[in-house]
Amino acid sequence: MMIHQITEQAGAHRKRKRIGRGPGSGNGKTAGRGHKGARSRSGYASRTGDEGGQMPLFRRLPKRGFSNARFRTVYAIVNLKAIDARFDDGAEVNPETLVRVGLIKDTRTPVKVLAQGETAKKFSVTAAAFSQAAIEKIQKAGGAVTVAS
Q: CATH code for 75-147?
């Protein structure tokens, strides 16, 4: 076979490793697990906190207090310098246009605009949240800020 005969598909699908199918397979007897030790035993799990049948430490300890972490708002962060680089003067900047230029992945996550960088362009920016410095910089350049809920 020559290099020009190799297609994109060559080697794309690796054959499944058939373990424990006798010595002729090359993966018989110990089935690729080696000899002795925890990794060779059935039931071994590399997951953190897994203790076999024993009650895990995390479940043995008492739980106290409250964490607000589950309820926090996670924002897609966009810096002013990125907006300045991708938009023209007088542009309308909102989540849909930010997705179009590739600054955020989708419109489901609320957008927060931060003040890193400078701008002299007039933008009309609509986002879920702004840093105070970002609002000042946009308005100083003559732009408008709209907080969308």
A: 3.100.10.10
Query: Within 13 A of 93's CA, how many CA atoms are on the CB side?
Result: 33
The string of pLDDT tens digits covering residues 80-113 is 999 999 999 999 999 999 999 999 999 999 999 9
Q: Report the side by side order of strands in the sheet with 76-79.
A: 76-79, 111-114, 129-130
- Complete DSSP assignment for 14-58: PPP---SS-GGGTS-TTTTS-SSSGGGSTT---STT--TTSPPHH
The reported pTM is 0.59
Closest CA to 124 of 113, 137, 112, 138: 138
Q: What residue segments make up the domains of the chain, in order of their start?
A: 75-147
To which H or E segment does residue 78 belong?
strand 76-79
> 3-state class of 132 per DSSP?
helix
